[in-house]
Amino acid sequence: MIPRHQTVLLIILVVASTVMGVALWHLRERAHARLLAGQDAAPTEAPLVAPPEQATLYFASDEDNSLTAELLSLPLPPNPNARARAVLGKLMDLYAAPNATHPVQGGAASIAQVYLLPEPSANATATATAALSKESATGPQLAVVNLTSTFANGHPSGLETETLTILSICATLHANLPRVAQVRFLVDGQPRPTLSGHADLTRTYLTADAVPTPGVHP
User: Fold this and answer.
1) Residue 49 binned pLDDT confidence (cut-offs 50, 70, 90)
2) Domain boundaries in the chain?
3) CA-based radius of gyration for the chain
4) Which end of the chain has fewer CB atoms within 10 angstroms, the N or the C?
5) How far is CA 155 from the centre of its chain?
6) pLDDT tier at 135, thresholds 50, 70, 90
7) Whole-angstrom Cα distance, residue 130 to residue 83?
8) Mapped to the 3 state alphabet, what secondary structure does the chain carry?
9) Residue 190 forms beta bridges with which residues?
10) 40-44, 77-81, 201-205: range with lowest mean pLDDT
């Protein structure tokens, strides 16, 4: 015969288990209802895509060491930094394509970031810096292009081919963001002596020098 206190304890456990089961069932139903409500409230329209715009890309050709401007229709974001990265990403995609005139592997992922900064003044003082800050919305800019080490390490080695890549980047930036007057390069966020053993990455490049004069090779 089961003692009375054990019988009472068993009944209490059964009742508690039943109550907990009912509570868990209600919680599950509420969570399911919230999930369905969230799905109903979620937007069904596709996310907005930047409208296509005319962009000028300067393509390099290894055959005659030239740069050639071409117009393309690209979806360009309104943010200048993102716009700069988008046009350079497209340039790198075309260099990575089969039968490219300047074959370089890596594609758009080769451009980690592009930062647009006010062009530094040669005689910077506190007053000049303040004035430059006020004019930063309309004054010349310095573009800092951060390349990936994978791109730099895999770039074909040679002074001409490396220089063509750098000049095409500078000319493309200036063509689509005319305020960009100077370009500096980083690799994985750090200074690097050369792109792939030859072209200098420690210097500042002037975009005016990168844009080719018709009939004249860079």
Assistant:
1) low
2) 1-45, 52-210
3) 30
4) N
5) 19
6) very low
7) 27
8) CCCHHHHHHHHHHHHHHHHHHHHHHHHHHHHHHHHHHHHHHCCCCCCCCCCEEEEEEEEEECCCCEEEEEEEEEECCCCHHHHHHHHHHHHHHHHCCCCCCCCCCCHHHHEEEEEEEECCCCCCCHHHHHHHHHHCCCCCEEEEEEECHHHHHHCCCCHHHHHHHHHHHHHHHHHHCCCEEEEEEEECCECCCECCCCCECCCCEEHHHHCCCCCCCC
9) 187
10) 40-44
Tokens of 31: 């969570």
CA torsion sign for 172, 178, 182, 187 is: negative
Average pLDDT over residues 123-137: 43
pLDDT of residue 1: 62
Query: Does residue 127 register a pLDDT over 60?
Result: no
Report residue 5's pLDDT band, with 50, 70 and 90 as the boundaries: low
Top pLDDT among 16 and 193 is at: 193
CA distance 19 to 14: 9
Q: Can you state the angle between helices 80-95 and 159-176, rounded to 10 degrees?
A: 140
Q: Which amino acid is at 180?
A: V
- pLDDT greater than 60 at residue 136: no
Pairing of strands 205-206, 52-61: unpaired
